[in-house]
């Protein structure tokens, strides 16, 4: 089945394209390269050529914006798209606070345009990239899918609003088959060392920052607070290996068998890991202690956030199998092979 992957040149999209091809799907990618580059697609093709020789084909790629209706129509006319995975969008919490309109315009307009053209071409299967951010500040842990959707920042609100749009569409327009995957903290890289997380500028997220300290681009890890009510006082999160996350999309596609019923699943490990534990694990991967400094808390951070991953296991037959140690090992292989990104 041909699967349209929006944002498929990005961090999660590129890893998912590989797992889709390995699972026998035919990915078709649209990406405007606003946060990625052609290098990503070259590396994906190289990985497929060596690790998935049965795939054999190329990855049809369309450079453009998901808000371009004519381009979407061209893709649906040129390929027998059976379902869509929608990664394309802006994803920085901090940036969304300083540029809210850009986030609402990009994330929501692109989704509305995509849904409109999907319906016009009667392509009604969709897997949407949602986020644990839709839970807002956790009041109870682990987080379960039945908890209310809300947010504390424009980025998170775009995910809450898009999930509401998808749920309303499912309940009002017959035939939609939609699953949202709520990712917790994606980390790591492909075990080939050829693709990984390649943030522009100073990384907002912990793993890429630690990785850049390890390769000497940054002098030390700034630990945002050690006075949280957690075992070692530092923030606790649910870090999911990017390959496990990519495989969750294959599982979701295979279970797109619930027309007229909207579904959402937590994609996490169900285990909370602290900042200091991450630094320790990455230090072990590198083979030396990485320098860090305890500094003030980052505004907006919560102490702990981790998933109940039971529903995805029960209904999608998916659960995480890789560890944070695997993620640190694979991140280090990627970073040390590509000290300046691609
Ligand atoms: P990313 O920025 O690496 O990938 C997004 C891709 O979409 C990029 O290649 C970018 O060029 C492309 N893109 C953006 N806007 C576009 C548009 N209008 N038209 C076409 N292409 C466009 O981000 P990612 O980490 O791979 O995240 C993918 C999705 O997963 C996003 O929707 C994000 O909100 C969501 N998500 C990410 C995380 C995370 O921590 N990385 C966590 C939860 C959810
Ligand atoms: C993890 C932990 C920090 C950097 C974010 C978004 C979320 C989702 C995933 C899109 C926290 C600490 C971090 C650093 C640190 N993205 N930290 N020093 O904030 O859990 O989630 O990315 O959907 O929406 O909010 O991830 O990696 O930024 O932080 O001490 O240099 O590491 O305080 O405890 P976060 P993160």
From TrEMBL:
The protein depicted here goes by the name UDP-glucose 4-epimerase
Subunit composition?
A: Homodimer.
Swiss-Prot/TrEMBL catalytic activity? UDP-alpha-D-glucose = UDP-alpha-D-galactose
Q: Which GO terms describe its cellular component?
A: cytosol
A Pfam family hit: Epimerase
Q: Which CDD domains match?
A: UDP_G4E_1_SDR_e
Organism classification: Bacteria, Bacillati, Actinomycetota, Actinomycetes, Actinomycetales
Q: Where would one find coiled-coil regions in this protein?
A: none
Top EC group: isomerase
Q: Which UniProt keywords apply?
A: Carbohydrate metabolism, Galactose metabolism, Isomerase, NAD
Q: Which InterPro entries match?
A: Epimerase_deHydtase, NAD(P)-bd_dom_sf, UDP_G4E
Q: Where is the NAD-dependent epimerase/dehydratase domain?
A: 3-268
What does this protein need as cofactor?
NAD(+)
**Pathway this chain belongs to:** Carbohydrate metabolism; galactose metabolism
Care to name a GO molecular-function term for this sequence? UDP-glucose 4-epimerase activity
GO BP? galactose metabolic process
Per the UniProt entry, the Enzyme Commission number(s) are: 5.1.3.2
Organism superkingdom: Bacteria
Keyword NAD on entry: yes
Give the family this protein belongs to, as stated in its UniProt record. Belongs to the NAD(P)-dependent epimerase/dehydratase family.
């Amino acid at each position: 089945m041909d699967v349209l992957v929006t944002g498929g040149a990005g961090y999660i999209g590129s890893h998912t394209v590989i797992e889709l091809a390995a699972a026998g799907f035919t990915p078709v990618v649209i990406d405007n390269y606003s946060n990625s580059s052609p290098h990503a697609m070259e590396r994906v093709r190289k990985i497929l050529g060596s690790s998935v020789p049965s795939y054999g084909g190329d990855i049809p790629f369309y450079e453009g914006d998901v808000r371009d209706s004519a381009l979407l129509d061209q893709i649906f006319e040129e390929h027998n798209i059976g379902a869509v995975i929608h990664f394309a969008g802006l994803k920085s919490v901090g940036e969304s606070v300083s540029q809210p309109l850009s986030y609402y315009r990009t994330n929501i307009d692109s989704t509305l345009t995509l849904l409109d053209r999907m319906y016009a071409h009667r392509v009604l299967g969709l897997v949407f990239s949602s986020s644990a951010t839709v839970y807002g500040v956790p009041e109870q842990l682990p987080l379960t899918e039945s908890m209310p959707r809300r947010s504390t920042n424009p980025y998170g609100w775009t995910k809450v609003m898009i999930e509401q749009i998808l749920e309303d569409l499912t309940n009002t327009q017959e035939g939609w088959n939609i699953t949202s995957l709520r990712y917790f903290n994606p980390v790591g890289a492909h075990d080939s060392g050829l693709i990984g997380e390649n943030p522009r500028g100073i990384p907002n997220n912990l793993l890429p920052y630690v990785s850049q300290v390890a390769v000497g681009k940054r002098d030390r890890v700034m630990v945002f607070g050690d006075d949280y009510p957690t075992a070692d006082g530092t923030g606790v999160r649910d870090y999911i290996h990017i390959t496990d996350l990519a495989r969750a999309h294959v599982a979701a596609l295979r279970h797109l068998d619930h027309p007229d019923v909207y579904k959402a699943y937590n994609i996490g490990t169900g285990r909370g890991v602290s900042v200091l534990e991450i630094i320790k694990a990455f230090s072990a991967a590198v083979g030396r202690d990485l320098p860090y400094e305890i500094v003030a808390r980052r505004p907006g951070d919560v102490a702990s956030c981790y998933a109940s991953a039971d529903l995805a296991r029960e209904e999608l037959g998916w659960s995480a199998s890789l560890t944070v140690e695997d993620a640190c090992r694979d991140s280090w292989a990627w970073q040390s092979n590509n000290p300046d990104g691609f």
